[in-house]
Design brief:
alpha/beta, four-stranded mixed beta sheet, about 40% helix, two-stranded parallel ribbon, about 210 residues
């Protein structure tokens, strides 16, 4: 939230990707989407002109989070040879966005001189600069930084959950969400329009993660 010079409250609401929100005739692809919808509907009904909504695609940071959607490349002592990993969305093309960009967009909106006039009632769809495949572009970016071949193969959601200590039965509730997210490869220019610079690429993200 922020307040303008007249002490009026302005809200930038962080939601989730539009396809997730609008799946199933607007019901959403998961309970997660329904919870966001409740807040969005409240803002529309009660805060005319005093809010905007940010709808980012899948965060690149999820890949490094160590969860069932993370890429876990095993540590090996030898310096040569192929490194292998699996991911339940390896074959999908998704226009992932760096959450650094999403945070920067929110900060710019909330620090603007007149957020209501510039951003009131707007819905911003935030994506990365390209639709990328974990099997292809992500693996290639990691390989380039590590200077050794990396292969990331597709695996079932059940296997990914079990390998992270989560019961495979959880896949029933998660699969519709991932199926919808996995088809969101559309690219918008709204990050660049709002920040005045291109959205960060997967190469930028991988380089920073590995150097850190």
């Amino acid at each position: 939230h922020t307040r303008d010079t007249n002490n009026n409250l302005f809200t930038a609401k962080l939601s989730t990707a539009t396809p997730i929100m609008e799946a199933n005739g607007g019901e959403g692809a998961s309970s997660y989407a329904k919870e966001h919808r409740i807040v969005e509907d409240y803002l529309r009904a009660n805060c005319d002109g005093k809010y905007c909504i940010l709808r980012p695609n899948m965060f690149m940071q999820v890949l490094a989070a160590g969860s069932f959607l993370g890429i876990n490349i095993p540590h090996v002592d030898k310096d040569e040879g192929e490194l292998q990993a699996t991911h339940p969305m390896a074959n999908c093309k998704v226009s992932m966005v760096d959450c650094v960009d999403v945070a920067s967009v929110a900060a710019d909106i909330l620090s603007s001189a007149s957020p209501k006039e510039q951003h009131g009632n707007n819905v911003y769809e935030l994506t990365g600069p390209a639709a990328i495949s974990i099997r292809e572009e992500v693996a290639s970016s990691i390989s380039n930084e590590l200077k050794r071949p990396v292969e990331i193969e597709n695996t079932s959601l059940e296997s990914a959950l079990e390998s992270n200590g989560i019961p495979s039965a959880a896949a029933k509730g998660l699969q519709p969400f991932l199926d919808t997210l996995g088809t969101y490869g559309g690219v918008t220019s709204q990050v660049e329009q709002l920040l005045g610079r291109p959205a960060r690429s997967i190469q930028d993200f991988v380089r920073d993660e590995i150097s850190a």
